Queue: 3 jobs
Job 1
Amino acid sequence: MATLRAAIIGAAGYTGSELVRLVHRHPELSLAVVAARDNAGKRLDQVVRSTLGVKGVGELVLEAFDPEQARELAKRVDVAFLCLPHAASANAAKALYDAGLRVVDLSADFRLKSREVYEKTYGPHPAPELFEVAVYGLPELHRKELAGARLIAAPGCFPTSSILPLAPLLKAGLVAKDGIIVDSKSGVSGAGRTPGQAYHLPEAAEGIRPYKVAGAHRHTVEIEQELSLAAGDELKVVFTPQLAPMTRGILSIGYARLLPGKTEDDCRAAARDLYRDGLVSVLDQGVLPDTLWVRGSARAHVAYAVDTRVSTVLAMGALDNLAKGASAQAIQALNVAMGWPDAHGLPEIAAFP
C-alpha cells in the first residue's frame, strides 16, 4: 500500500505539533509539508522544539499557505490536516477539497450540519455547500459515513468528552432527554499556543474557573447536535466549561435522569455494546476516570455511577484534549476513511506518570 503524503497547515500550534508527532509514527503517512503563517521560512525544529534531531522532520521548513496555492499543494501531498482558525479553515478546506485532496479539518467550520446554527454561533460561512459532504469525524458514532470520506470535520475536545459517555444512554433509552447537564474541566492547552493573560502560569496554576457559561460556549450546539442524533429527538443541554490548572486533559461529567427500572449496569452494558469498535474504554464499576490515565493516548475513558437517591446517572468521560480530543482523533477518522484499523499508528497507552 502506498504511503500517503501529508501536509499539516498550522503546524506550529499545539494541535499541529501533536499531529507532527503522530503523523511521524504512522506507518501509512509521511510528513511532506508543514505550513504556519507567522513562522514561515523557519525550520520546524526552531518552532516545535520536540522535533530537534528527528531526521526528515525537524529540518522541514515551514511554508506560508494561501488557498490560491491549493492546486500546487495537491501535486505534492495526498491529504491535508487543517489546524486553522474558524472561517480561515473553511476557505482552505474548500480550495484543497476542490483540488482533489482529502481534507481533515480540526476547526469547527464543518462540524455543524445546520447553516443557520453555524452562522448564529460563528458568523457567515464561506463554503456552506460543503456541509452536505463533510462527515463528523467521531468514528465510534459515524463509522459508516466516514468510509471513503474526503472532507472530515474532526470533533471538538469538549464535545468528544461529553458525547461519548452520554450517547449510549440516549441511544438505548436509559435516560430522560430533558434536563441534561454537562460539567467539563479542561487543561489550558485547549486555548491554543497564542499567549493570553488567562493562561499565564501565575493566573492559571493555582485556581479553577468557569467561563462562557449559560449557553455562551460555542461547543454547546455541537454537543446538542450529536446527542440529538443519538436520542432520535432534538434536545438541549446545560454546558459549563471550566479551566483547570493542568496542561493537557479534559474530564466531563454529564448528569441525566435515569428512567424507572434502568440501572447502572444497563449504562455500562449500553456503552460496551456501542463501543465494541473504536478507541473508547468503558471502565468497570467503581473505577472512576482520571485524565492522567489518558495523557498522550488516543483512547477515551468513560464510566458510570448512579445516585439512586435522586435517580441520576453520572456519565463521565476523560481524554487528552490534544489527542482523542483533536489530533489523534483526526488521524483515527482518517484511518477509518481509508479502511485501516482505528488505532493504526496511534498510541493507545498513556504516558505514565
Job 2
Amino acid sequence: MAKKAAQQPAETSEVILYLKQISNEKKIPEEILYSKIEAAMVSAYKKEFGKQDNVSASMDRVTGEISVFARKTIVEEVTDPTVEISLAEVRERFPELADYDLGDLVEVPAGIDRFGRIAVQTARMVILQGIREAERGHILDELSDKENEVLTAIVKLVEPDCAYVEVSKTEGVLERKEMMPGEEVKVGDKLKVYVLEVNRSGRGPQVRVSRTHTGLIKRLFEVEVPEIKNGEVLIKAIAREAGSRTKMAVYSSNKDIDPVGACVGPHSLRVDNVSAELKTEKIDIIRWSSDPKEYVAAALSPARVSSVELSERDKQANVIVPDNQLSLAIGKEGQNARLAAKLTGWRIDIRSMSQALEQSVAESESDAEA
C-alpha cells in the first residue's frame, strides 16, 4: 500500500456549509455531492496532465479540505513525471517518506493549486454537471414511484405531434396519441395526466404521460370517492373511448353501501368533478354483478333490457330490449353497445322485441314447413 504524503488544505469549511445548503434545497444526499467534487478534481488533473489512472481525490467531510494524490514510482531519474518521482525529491519534499526507496510506490500531492485555468474550468463544469445529474437522479427516484399514478402537468411547449409538460420539476411528454380526440392544449394549461413510464433520456429523466389511459379514470375516482380509496367500493372494470364516453363497473361487498351512488355522489358532484377534468367526457357508472346476465343488462345502461340469453360456447349475449329502447341500447354509431361489450367481455347482439318476435314467427313457420 502506497503511503500518502501530507497536503495542505485547499478549501475551507465554507464549502461544507454550501454543500449542506445545496443538499437541503435540492434534496440530494451530501455524500453524492462529495463524490461529484472528488470526481471533478480527478478530471481536472487529467485535463492538466493527460493522465488520471494513478490519481485519487478525497474531500474531508468536516473541514472541506480537498486532497488530490498521484501514485508514483520512486526512481533515480524521472522520465515521466506523471507516474514517476525521483528519490531525491521524495527525500527533500516529504521527510515523512524517508524510509521509502527506489521502486517503491508513493502517493504524493498532485498540487491542485497549480492547476491551469482550463483544468479549473473543467472541474467547475464537472461539479455543476454532477449536481444537476444528482438532482435529476433524485427526481427520477421520486417519479419512479409515481408510475401508474395521476399527477398535475403544466404545458410548456406544444408541437404538432406532442406537448412537452412539466411534471414534478422535470420534463414530461404527452404524445398526440395520448391526448383525448379533439383536445387542444395550450401553453400554461394545467392537466391531470396518468404516468405511463419514467425513463432517462439524453437530457435527464423524462416522463411519458397520458390523458386517454383507463387508469386516469380509476385514479381520479380514487381521489373523489373515499369509499374507493379505503377499499369499501371496488372498480371492477373500465371501458373507455377517451374524450367521449366511459363505462365503469363498481361493486361493494358491504350491503349498506351503494357503490353506484357512492361514485355518483350527492347531486352528481363526484362524477361531475371527474368528468370536468376530462373535458366533460360522459361517464356511466354501473353495478358489477357476478351474474353475467345481470352484468350485461346493467352495462347497456341507460337502456332498459327485457331479457338476456347467453351462449357460453362463443361468449355471446343475445339481448332483447323494448322497441323504444333499441337506439338507446345501441347508442350513437354503436358506442353504447361497443363499450358494454368491452366492459363485460361478452359479444352483444341487440334486438328489439318486435324484431325478436318476427324472427320467432319466421322460425316457427320454417319448422312447420319442414
Job 3
Amino acid sequence: MRIIYIPVTIKITEKNFKNFLRCIAYDIYIILKNFSFKKKATNSTSGYIDAAIHSNAFVIELPYNYCLTFSKILNLLFDGIFVNWKFTNYRKDKNALETKLLKLSKKFKIKKVIIDGTDQSTNLIKDEILQGFDYVIKREKNKSISNNKYLSTILPCKLINYKITKNKEIIDWNNIGNAKPNYNPKYDIFFSGQETSKYRNDLIEFLKNRKYNFFGRAENSKIPFKKYLSNIYDSSINLALEGKGEFTFRHLEILASCSFMLCERSINELELPIPLVDEKHFVSFTDKEDLIEKIDFYLKNNNLRNKIALNGRQVLEEHYSPKKHGNILMSKIFK
C-alpha cells in the first residue's frame, strides 16, 4: 500500500514570528526525512503504530499544509492518508485541530485514518469528524467502544530500539531486559513515578507506612533510567499504577524485565494488541484491601510469582511486533 502520513509535529505554546519560522523549518525537516535510509522505531507515544505503518507500506510523510495543497495529485498516487492526532503545532486550540481534520476529510477520497495517541481510552471523536474518516486507531482502545471504526494500538516499549524494515523484523530479545526472573530480589515492592493523581500519592504513602520493604516514591523528579530498570528487576512486586492512561510505558518495561507486575483492574477494560491475561501474565487489584491481600499472597508464593513474571516476558516476546500489528491493521483498513 502507498500511504501518506501526517506525523507528530513540533509543539508550540505561543504564536509569534519566531515560532512561525520554527514551524516552517520543521515542515521542511519532515519532508527531508523521507530521503533518509535509516528509519528507526522511536519511543514517542505513537512510536509503535508509526513503526507498524512504515514496516507494512510505502510511506511518504508530509505536513498538513502540503497535503492540502497537493491533495488532487495525492489522491491519484496514494491508497490512504493517516493523520496523527498531534499533527498541529498549536495544540491548545482544539477547534483549529478539528477544523483541519474536517478539511482533510473533504479533500481526500482515499482511505482516511486518524491515529489518536491520547491517553484517554474511552475518548470518542466528534461524529461530524468521524463521518469523514474510515477508521480511528486509538492508543489502548477501551472495550466499551463498540463502533467498528475504532481500532486499537499500544505504546512502544522503551527498551526496544530497532531498525524498521519492510523485509524482516529483527528484535534481538537477548539484548532486551531480562529473560529470567530475579530469584533473589532486594525489595518487596517497587514504584517510582510522577505525582499524576492524589490516588497514586495516597496509595504509595499507605504502603510505605506498612511493614513491607518498599522502595520508591511518587514525585516529579525521575530516577535515572538504568537505575529505574535495575530497581524493577530487584523487586519482588512492581506496581504499575494508572498514570497518563490505564496502560503506560511502565507496564511494558516491567514485562520486558521479566518481573512480576501488580496493576489496577482497569487494565482489563482495554483492548490490547498483546493478549495479556490477568493472573497469568500479571495480577490486578481493585482497592487497598485487595492490594494488601495480593501483596501478602505473592510475597509468600515465590514460585507462582516468578512463573507469572516469566509468562509476562514470554507473551511480550511472542506478540510485541509492530510489523505483525501493522499487517493486521492494514488488512482491516484495506479489506
